[in-house]
Here is the input.
Amino acid sequence: MAAKKTSKTNVSKDDLLHYYREMLLIRRFEEKAGQLYGMGLIGGFCHLYIGQEAVVVGLEAAAEEGDKRVTSYRDHGHMLACGMDANGVMAELTGRSGGYSKGKGGSMHMFSKEKHFYGGHGIVGAQVPIGAGLAFADKYLGNGRVTFAYFGDGAANQGQVYETFNMAALWDLPVVFVIENNQYAMGTSQQRSTSSAEIYERGRAFGIPGEAIDGMDVLAVKAAGETAVAHCRSGKGPYILEIKTYRYRGHSMSDPAKYRTREEVQKIREEKDAIEHVRDLLLTGKHCTEEDLKAIDKEIKAVVNDSAEFAKQSPEPVLDELWTDIYAQAEA
Amino acid sequence: MAIEILMPALSPTMEEGILGKWLVAEGDKVSSGDILAEIETDKATMEFEAVDEGIIGKLLIKEGTANVAVNSAIAILLDEDESLSDATPAARQAASAAAQTASELSSSAQAPVAVQVVEHNLPENTTFKSLTVREAIREAMSEEMRSDQTVYLMGEEVAEYQGAYKISQGMLDEFGPKRVIDTPITEHGFAGIAVGAAFGGLKPVVEFMTFNFAMQAMDHIINSAAKTLYMSGGQMGAPMVFRGPNGAAARVGAQHSQDYAAWYAHIPGLKVVMPYSADDAKGLLKSAIRDPNPVIFLENEILYGQSFQVPDLPDYTVPLGKARIWREGNDITLVSFGIGMKYALETANQLAEMGVSAEVIDLRCLRPLDTDTVVNSVKKTNRCVTIEEGFPVCSIGSHISSVLMQEAFDYLDAPVITCTGKDVPMPYAANLEKLALVTTDEVMTAAKSVLYR
Here is the structure.
């Protein structure tokens, strides 16, 4: 793989600090979610984003206000990165009334109209045409917005993805297809599930430009995101970013991890970690001291602990909620 | 020898058509493959090609003639050395007899059923116009698209082709390609795109060429459209309509002949509409487009060409979730919807001849289901037969029957009988297909049985 890297110059201290905070928030949040799962406070499926933080943080840095995003069930990172409140996300994980979906959606199904986050979809690949549909609406309404449709290397083999590529290209829809290639579709490695090594090249059949990006480098992701967004916003149609990343944890909490070695995970953590990378840039660039970063770590920890506390204290939904939100009422 | 050129059947459900335009004149020499005429079927305007070569001796039907029955003679083709007077009278008689039979068949199949319409809340002095179900659906979509810029139509062949069943004929001209959109043949993908568009603030009307193909899109209809409002805690849903022909057409085999009413009626978060008449098709579709929820709107190809009186009002709507009583009666309740209403109304007529007064209820919507109207009727008549074309297991009738057992048990004088399509994939052979569908005779037998007669 010759995934694109960018030079690490020309990035401001503020930007680096912002990426550091955002990625750290996701990691600490997910660690806490894993802990609450172990305590039985979170149930069902819970897919953690640890290791992939640079993907959403880099792309959010390329987005503008009003741009939309939609993703799969591994969605906590996307929600935090687009500015959704950690308390509301954690309380949804615990199935409480203070959650984004009042406890009725869970880990895989959260939405925020305010932050233009359109879910949290549990069926592999379903979010891809939905993302193109959001872009369709934006083009129809002529509002200049761009949609990020995130999906994994596993979803990249779904038929509906190619139906969508075809229509998105045919109709010049302003959508960035973001393939978060974490190398494993649940427990099946890319080599064992996918006939071609370079998934981004599959857009070529539809005339959709694409590129592969080192997803452990937040600056490279941001730069690629800017190229993709500019392409879409200028009316040239969709763009594909295959972002090569890595998931440190299992597919879900109940993953026995028999399909890869501990050493493989450890090696990437040690050599490629996205947060460590930014941390290095901050320190070697003399933007800040170890002490400064410790203060940030502490701050993030407090936010996450507060969210866990909120998620434990928030009451379960009242029983009447079983019967609400099935049908929308027509406006009078 | 002279050959009679017969009006062709150009679609599975075509019984008659319009001879739109002759492209040959008397005396013209034609060869096999030449286009003779433009014929308008119930689905489209088609070019009709010559099979044999010869000289056009006579055009028997003037261009612009409507209701030309399939198999009636429309022209006479002569051999090169033959004159019109040589054409054998016997051949001509045979052909015209065949045409006669076809036209009789066609008129008996479409015999208008006498109905007494109850429960129409219309302004005084409302006038009516005759519209086919097809025209009614088109009017509903067009009116809503005129009044709301966020409503658009997408589907296979809805634009340039003018609709596989001519529902959207002329709409591309009026609304342009931005709002009347031909999709590739990718139901799964375009249904998902439409759901996304609905999330993004539009009100898509998705036409499935038939609901058989919507199975490819089932995941988006159920998981993406129906459940999102709930999963988002009420934050966002999918205000949209999925519509198209549903159920058996005619001789199109197992994969193209299935009634999905019960499938969709099963799903919380969907609304499900299945109209019988043109006035309901129009009024209910307008309400469906305005509804803030995903609505499944099940049409029927055989009903498309049938005409009904439709109120001539600028904005005629029918609320979702209200059954319609087509005929009041005291002795038995017949409950149906969609094309099943044809059998229900025919049975009611036959029962009337026996002196039995049947109440006929058209459910119109299967979700929400107006069980009150059914229960109240059965409390009066004490007997009930349900009629539908779908499969018998977990049918709409089974549900009605269970509701009646729970809510009107003490009022029932006989078990509820559910008349349905047979529990078999649809066969192709004409006789078997007829057997697989519900028939008026079966409904009569069921009615007599619950009446103990």
In short: Confidence is low (pLDDT under 50) at residues 97-116 of chain B. Chain B has three domains: 3-106, 128-311, 324-450. The interface with chain A takes residues 152, 178, 183-184, 186, 188-202, 219-220, 223-224, 228-237, 239, 268-269, 271, 290-293 of chain B (CB under 8 Å).
